[in-house]
Design brief:
heterodimer, A: about 170 residues, mainly alpha, disordered N terminus, B: about 140 residues, 7 helices, globular
Chain lengths: ~170, ~140
């Protein structure tokens, strides 16, 4: 997992380098366009900076309050309504690369976790708590709230649809 | 003990944040360049036919894209400003985080082919459904 994290970090810097290279090429061909793009970037960055500070503190809070062991322990319980809710909440709280969670879900499924709950967990990961301020910044509070509620609802729907797959597997 | 835990968490969060920064800055730079270079083409090219088609295009782009979710907000926000419909942008944002064409091989290996394919197909169509439902709900509540 550590190796994956380091790899992702390097990928980000490589991505930034490629983008800067694209700016270099654009600047060589059309310096005015590159300049306009940079001033547009500066304007957007000014708006985004305060939101990034909030994102940092939310990431910190998530790390302090929710340990992976806690999530793993509670998701592994016998599924009932509580299991569905826990899968949804666990997905919302889950952060980091998805590959890490595939491994955890496989482990849990081998121990008896239902496929439907794994689907619910993966779906509800779409709600990124630490990134909500940025979403609100771009799309507004009402939109963010409505979208998050639908995402939660559809995480359950996806789980229900996966029950059919589960039934096929068992028959 | 608490101080040590806080220090460890701060370290971990700082590392995560430093890893996030180049993605945020890179994505902002890239969208700034794209919006400056192709302000009209972005909305007129891929999007702009009908809400249904735009939602499908948005969901397809989001399904193929493999980046940090933050990038989808930035791209979606800029697309919205350049005139792309909210339905298309919502489908893009939702499929970006729920469908993973690039991650599919890993998901197949870890969770099984049937599970991975069913889940991704369900997520693709639900991203379109959520896009319409969200926009219509917002219209209803004003």
């Amino acid at each position: 997992m550590e190796r994956e994290r380091k790899k992702t970090g390097l990928g980000g810097w490589l991505f930034l380098l490629l983008v800067l290279a694209a700016y270099g090429v654009t600047g060589a061909v059309d310096a005015e366009t590159a300049g306009q793009a940079l001033s547009f970037f500066a304007k957007v960055m000014q708006n985004v900076l305060p939101v990034l500070v909030i994102v940092f503190f939310l990431l910190l809070a998530a790390d302090l309050l929710f340990e992976p062991k806690w999530i793993k322990c509670n998701l592994g319980r016998e599924a009932g309504i509580k299991g569905w809710l826990l899968a949804a909440v666990g997905g919302v709280l889950a952060t980091g690369p998805i590959y890490a969670w595939y491994a955890l879900l496989r482990e849990l499924r081998e121990k008896g976790m239902r496929a439907s709950l794994a689907a619910v967990f993966l779906y509800s990961r779409a709600i990124k708590l630490p990134l909500l301020p940025l979403m609100i910044h771009y799309f507004g509070t009402a939109y963010t709230l409505v979208l998050c509620l639908y995402l939660l609802g559809f995480s359950i729907v996806s789980g229900v649809l996966m029950v059919k797959l589960e039934d096929r597997e068992t028959t | 003990m608490q101080k040590e835990r806080l220090q460890a968490s701060l370290k971990k969060t700082a590392r995560t944040f430093v890893n996030l920064l180049p993605i945020i800055v890179g994505m902002l730079l890239l969208t700034s360049l794209a919006v400056t270079m192709f302000p009209e083409q972005i909305s007129a090219g891929l999007f702009g036919s009908s809400d249904a088609l735009d939602a499908l295009v948005g969901a397809s782009v989001g399904s193929i894209a493999a980046g940090h979710p933050l990038a989808s907000y930035l791209l979606g926000g800029e697309l919205l400003k350049s005139g792309v419909s909210l339905v298309a942008v919502t489908a893009l944002i939702v499929s970006w985080v729920t469908v993973g064409v690039v991650q599919l091989p890993a998901e197949v290996l870890m969770l099984g082919a049937r599970f991975a394919i069913y889940r991704n197909v369900i997520c693709f169509f639900s991203s379109v459904a959520i896009a319409f439902l969200s926009v219509y709900t917002l219209r209803l509540i004003g």
